[in-house]
Recover the amino acids of this structure.
């Protein structure tokens, strides 16, 4: 399988690039990560005109190499045998999302006896854990699923996923890949370090946390972070410098950054649920060597899986932009250099994948990547 | 891009000194540098932030950890306290008896020490008795490692009083008091006046503090050699809460113990009650009393003895019965009397008993005690056991009262409330016992009395059964036997009958064991001194006499008896002979024994003597009766002979009567026969005549037949037939007449049957008439019959009624015939027979105009054998039999109306509903 990445600021840039493709490269599938500002329909139509299936989402930033940008379009073209992939597009209603993804999973296994999934969802209200549960209800806990949630240039207003002729701000787009034909290997890592003593979520409802250790969540976060309530960048600070992480018995802790404050009761929303009784710790941003660690992880993966990838797709949490700042490009560069294949990536609102020895979960402040390799 | 680098970049770009390649290279380098700077700046900023955050976090974490540490320590402390409390709780739950409260105090003290409460002097509990002004204290002294239980007064010190007042206000009250310096010593000095343990450490202590928490009727207290800190007091308060459990448990145990004790007491009382109810004899009282003593002892009261006292107000004494042990395990049962007026103890008991108190405790000491002991020793005589008491000795005599007296125990300590209550309850049960004892005594007395009465009755019965005066000796034996049966000691018994005023007497004596009469003898009572005494006593009409023979008198007596051949087993070797004599009118009965007899025996003897009075009277009467009986026997024989004669005469008379009845029957039958013969003659004549005529007619018939004159022959045949029918008719007449005669001659069975009265009357009228005519050809009378043809057949005995008719008709014909003989001119003898039916009976009247019946014999005419006819002409039974047949045989009536010289009319009424016999 051949792959090629391209990027542009405008649709014209893309069209130009498409027209410039070598004639022996007939892409059938395009990973399209673009800014909310871009005309995704036009781009989708453009690609469709070229006979390319679109697998797209809006982002908090997009890249095809270490130079990541916002407001642009990043595309990874692949000439996968159309028989080896299929794109599912399902709207969500927020009530039976689990059932929907279960249905998708059943359709998938009806199509491919061993499907892998790259999924992207839109809408901040989407319960990603429910979605994943729907998949694993059918496929089991070892289902091969990687992906991320669409962004919107950090405005947190409206996010979209789209494919040929379809686009939605509350849907799931799912790229089924026949694992008998295409090797799909993904991993996630974040490098955040837990600090301080373990605390207990004493009252919560879903992702709304009311109290930690019987103290209002915001108060706890403020006390331990030293931040002031009137800090205009409070949320950013929490997210980038002092997020919560859910401690688990097995696997790496899950990042659950607090991203919204309710001043009336000092409760907070976290990205992902923190059930009552869960144990959490505060986190400090990854050490500067996290880059090396991510690269190391990629290298390890390459060696362990004995993979010689054809393409690389990265879902990197938008929050890492702030917490890693300029180091992030080094991370992306490092990953790129490991695989040395065409790549595309986006800064997502959440990531989906497995940490080493972990379960399939929704992540935050995490780098999640997947490599594709067409099997002989 | 960094400003400075941007500046440099701008400069380079603007500069002409560099080639494009150089510019690109510089640009790239500058971009790299910028990137590096950005990265560094970012890192620095980040580091600062992280440092800050980390610092804050660290501070917070330290604070948190410190807080947690404190919390953990607090928890640890709380756990330690809880564990300590739990240990106290466990001890409390393990309590089995009230004294285990001491373990609670000890445990509390130990746990407090483990919790670093130091300088604990003691832990104690107080249970208050406001009425008594005391509290029971369970104490554990830490430094001494000792426990005490004391009952202490609280009204003798203001601090103690205030403490008690505060603690008894209600639960959850708190009292604390501290002594310092000199006050400690003052407090110690006060304590020395009480019965509490004296803590030697107080002698050098500079402070003493008390802390008490109340739980209502009980309080938990702590005393320390140093005041407690606030939290230590709070800690102690928590132990108070746990102590509440202990106290509840204590109460439960106490209650359980009380219940158990109560059950024990109930059981003990029940045993006494049961033994009481099982008493069958009054002598079982001591056994029952001993059981009472045993049960009392088993309840832990441990008296040496129990004294039972029964008041006898009439005699102003109290009878003491002491039951118990003598210390060696042997039973004691002693009885003696004391005067109710004894002032030290008895009178006090008496007054309390009179006031209907349930119990009392009298305390004796010093002189009072000595006096009482001396008195008691005096009255108890051989039972005296305590001879010396010291001046400092003290005795407590506790008595529980019952209706007749008291139960009493003696102790050297004031008996506890419990002891008094138990004593009262036992006294109450003993009331039952003593009442039962008295009832049994009464019953026994009544039974004994009944036995005595029975014995006396046997003697009386035997006496009354005497038929001959010879039976006197047997009666005596009965008397002796009854005396033995009644428990008189087997001794020689004797009866003496004094025959006359000269002293002559007859003796009946038994063997020396009273078993049987050994001999009888006669003697003169004046011939021996002892006998003479007996005789004198009789003459003076004494009831009884006792002669105690010893020495010379006895010798003389034996000699005399010897001379009378009275046998003795012991003989002259006996040293003493006591004669108990009871007199009766004609002598005396006596017992001779080697020693005195009890009063009861003497009284018994008196009663038997009185019965023997009856015996002897009976004896005399019998002798008289015997003489009379002889005479009566002779008279009886004469009477028997006379009776035999009368019976023979009666038999003869009855035979004669029977013969007469037969002759009457035969006479009427004979009268009937002539009439019957006449009656038969008539039909027989017809039969013969018609038979002769028919014979002729047959000849004529044959002749006409020969002639062939059928018509004539037919006429003749018809005549023949007619004549035959007449022959048959008259033959039947004769047959019925014979039948009637046969019926008459047969004995009447009295069996009734439906009969035509008219026909019967008519038949017998003719029979009678013709019968009389047969006897007297000149006899003639007019027969008039008026038969009521509406009379249906009635139930009668035809033979008997026929007999009656015959008799009446005969009498009527006789009467008219007699009158005719008087040759009265124009006299026509007429006999009328009339029958008539009325509602309930048939009336038959037989009237004649004959001689009539004289007035003076009218009431005799129905008497058997009465007749006005000359001798040989009538049996005199006719009317008598007829009357009986009509009245008795048929339930009817027979009357007569008559006038002498004019005639008589007999009326018979036979009822219709005369049942068939």
């Amino acid at each position: 399988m051949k792959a090629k990445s391209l990027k542009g600021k405008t649709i014209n840039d893309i069209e130009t690039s498409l027209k410039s493709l070598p004639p022996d490269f007939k892409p059938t599938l395009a990973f399209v990560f673009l800014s909310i500002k871009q005309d995704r329909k036009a781009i989708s139509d453009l690609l469709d005109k070229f006979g390319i299936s679109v697998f797209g989402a809006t982002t908090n930033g997009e890249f095809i190499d270490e130079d990541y940008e916002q407001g642009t379009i990043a595309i990874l073209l692949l000439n996968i045998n159309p028989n080896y992939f299929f794109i599912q597009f399902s709207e969500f209603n927020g009530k039976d999302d689990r059932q929907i993804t279960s249905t998708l999973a059943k359709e998938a296994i009806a199509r491919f006896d061993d499907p892998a999934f790259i999924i992207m969802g839109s809408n901040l209200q989407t319960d990603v854990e429910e979605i994943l549960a729907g998949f694993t209800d059918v496929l089991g806990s070892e289902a091969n699923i990687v992906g991320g949630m669409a962004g919107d240039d950090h405005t947190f207003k409206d996010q979209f996923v789209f494919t040929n002729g379809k686009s939605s701000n509350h849907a799931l787009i799912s790229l089924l890949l026949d694992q008998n034909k295409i090797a799909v290997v993904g991993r996630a890592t974040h490098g955040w370090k837990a600090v301080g003593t373990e605390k207990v979520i004493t009252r919560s409802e879903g992702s709304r946390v009311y109290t930690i250790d019987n103290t209002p969540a915001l108060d706890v976060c403020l006390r331990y972070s030293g931040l002031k309530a009137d800090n205009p960048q409070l949320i950013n600070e929490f997210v980038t410098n002092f997020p919560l992480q859910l401690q688990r018995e097995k696997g790496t802790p899950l990042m659950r950054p607090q991203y919204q404050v309710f001043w009336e009761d000092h409760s907070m929303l976290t990205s992902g649920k923190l059930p009552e009784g869960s144990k959490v710790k505060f986190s400090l941003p990854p050490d500067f060597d996290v880059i090396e660690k991510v690269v190391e992880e990629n290298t390890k993966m390459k060696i362990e899986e004995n993979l010689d990838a054809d393409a690389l797709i990265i879902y990197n949490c938008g929050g890492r932009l702030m917490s890693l700042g300029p180091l992030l490009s080094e991370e992306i560069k490092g990953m790129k250099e490991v695989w040395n294949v065409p790549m595309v990536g986006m800064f997502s609102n959440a990531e989906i994948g497995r940490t080493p020895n972990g379960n399939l979960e929704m992540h935050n402040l995490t780098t999640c990547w997947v490599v594709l390799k067409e099997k002989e | 891009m960094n400003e400075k680098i941007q500046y440099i970049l701008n400069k380079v770009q603007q500069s002409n000194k560099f080639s494009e390649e150089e510019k690109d290279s510089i640009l790239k380098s500058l971009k790299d540098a910028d990137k590096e700077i950005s990265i560094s700046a970012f890192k620095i900023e980040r580091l600062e932030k992280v440092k800050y955050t980390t610092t804050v976090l660290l501070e917070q974490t330290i604070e948190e950890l410190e807080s947690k540490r404190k919390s953990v320590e607090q928890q640890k402390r709380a756990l330690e306290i809880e564990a300590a409390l739990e240990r106290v709780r466990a001890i409390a739950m393990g309590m089995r008896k009230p004294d285990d409260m001491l373990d609670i105090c000890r445990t509390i003290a130990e746990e407090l020490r483990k919790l670093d409460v130091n300088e604990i002097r003691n832990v104690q509990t107080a249970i208050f008795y406001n009425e008594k002004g005391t509290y029971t204290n369970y104490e554990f002294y830490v430094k001494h490692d000792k426990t005490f239980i004391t009952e202490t007064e609280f009204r003798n010190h203001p601090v103690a009083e205030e403490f008690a007042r505060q603690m008894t206000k209600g639960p959850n009250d708190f009292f604390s008091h501290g002594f310092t310096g000199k006050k400690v010593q003052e407090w110690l000095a006060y304590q020395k006046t009480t019965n509490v343990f004296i803590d030697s450490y107080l002698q050098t202590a500079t402070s003493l503090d008390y802390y008490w928490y109340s739980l209502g009727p009980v309080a938990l207290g702590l005393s320390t050699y140093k005041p407690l800190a606030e939290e230590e007091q709070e800690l102690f308060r928590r132990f108070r809460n746990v102590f509440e459990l202990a106290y509840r448990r204590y109460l439960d145990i106490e209650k359980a113990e009380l219940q158990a004790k109560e059950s024990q007491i109930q059981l003990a009382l029940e045993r006494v009650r049961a033994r009481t109810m099982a008493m069958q004899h009054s002598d079982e009282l001591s056994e029952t009393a001993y059981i009472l003593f045993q049960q009392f002892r088993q309840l832990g009261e441990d008296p040496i003895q129990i004294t039972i006292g029964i008041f006898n107000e009439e005699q102003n004494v109290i009878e003491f019965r002491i039951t118990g042990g003598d210390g060696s395990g042997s039973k004691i049962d002693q009885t003696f009397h004391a005067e109710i007026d004894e002032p030290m103890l008895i009178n006090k008991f008496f007054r309390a008993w009179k006031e209907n108190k349930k119990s009392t405790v009298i305390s004796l000491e010093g002189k009072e005690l000595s006096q009482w002991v001396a008195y008691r020793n005096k009255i108890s005589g051989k039972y005296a056991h305590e001879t010396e008491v010291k001046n400092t000795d003290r005795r407590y005599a506790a008595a529980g009262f019952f209706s007749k007296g008291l139960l009493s125990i003696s102790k050297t300590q004031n008996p506890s409330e419990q002891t008094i209550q138990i004593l009262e309850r036992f006294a109450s049960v003993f009331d039952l016992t003593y009442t039962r004892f008295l009832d049994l005594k009464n019953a026994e007395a009544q039974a004994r009395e009944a036995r005595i009465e029975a014995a006396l009755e046997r003697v009386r019965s035997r006496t009354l059964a005497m038929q001959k005066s010879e039976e006197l000796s047997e009666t005596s034996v009965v008397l002796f036997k009854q005396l033995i049966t009644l428990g008189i000691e087997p001794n020689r018994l004797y009866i003496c009958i004094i025959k006359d005023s000269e002293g002559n007497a007859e003796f009946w004596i038994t063997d020396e064991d009273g078993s049987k009469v050994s001999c009888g003898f006669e003697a003169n009572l004046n011939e021996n001194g002892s006998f003479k005494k007996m005789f004198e006593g009789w003459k003076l009409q004494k009831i009884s006499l006792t002669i105690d023979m010893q020495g010379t008198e006895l010798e003389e007596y034996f000699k005399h008896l010897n001379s009378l051949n009275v046998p003795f087993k012991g003989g002259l070797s006996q040293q003493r002979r006591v004669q108990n004599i009871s007199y009766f009118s004609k002598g005396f009965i006596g017992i001779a024994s080697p020693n005195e007899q009890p009063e009861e025996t003497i009284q018994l003897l008196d009663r038997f003597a009185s019965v023997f009075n009856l015996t002897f009277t009976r004896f005399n009467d019998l002798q008289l009766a015997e003489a009379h009986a002889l005479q009566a026997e002779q008279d009886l024989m004469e009477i028997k002979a006379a009776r035999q004669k009368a019976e023979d005469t009666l038999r003869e008379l009855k035979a004669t009567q029977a013969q007469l009845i037969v002759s009457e029957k035969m006479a009427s039958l004979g009268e009937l026969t002539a009439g019957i013969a006449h009656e038969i003659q008539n039909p027989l004549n017809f039969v013969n005549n018609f038979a002769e005529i028919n014979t002729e007619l047959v000849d004529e018939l044959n002749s006409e037949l020969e002639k062939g004159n059928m018509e004539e022959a037919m006429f003749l045949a018809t005549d023949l037939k007619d004549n035959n029918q007449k022959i048959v008719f008259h033959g039947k007449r004769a047959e019925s007449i014979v039948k009637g005669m046969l019926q008459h001659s047969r004995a009447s069975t009295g069996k009734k049957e439906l009969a035509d009265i008219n026909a019967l009357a008519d038949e017998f009228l003719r029979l009678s008439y013709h019968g009389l005519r047969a006897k007297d050809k000149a006899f003639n009378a007019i027969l008039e019959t008026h038969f009521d043809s509406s009379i249906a057949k009635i139930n009668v005995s035809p033979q008997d009624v026929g007999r009656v008719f015959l008799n009446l008709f005969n009498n009527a014909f006789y009467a008219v015939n007699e009158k005719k003989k008087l040759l009265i001119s124009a006299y026509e003898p007429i006999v009328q027979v009339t029958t008539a039916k009325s509602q309930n009976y048939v009336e038959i009247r037989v009237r004649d105009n004959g001689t009539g019946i004289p007035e003076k014999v009218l009431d005799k005419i129905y008497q058997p054998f009465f007749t006005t006819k000359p001798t040989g002409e009538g049996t005199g039974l006719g009317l008598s039999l007829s009357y009986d047949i009509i009245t008795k045989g048929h339930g009817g009536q027979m009357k007569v109306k008559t006038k002498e010289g004019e005639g008589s009319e007999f009326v018979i009424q036979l009822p219709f509903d005369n049942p068939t016999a």
Observations:
- Chain A has a mean pLDDT of 91.
- Residues 220 and 226 of chain A are 10 Å apart (CA to CA).
- The first helix of chain A runs from residue 11 to 19.
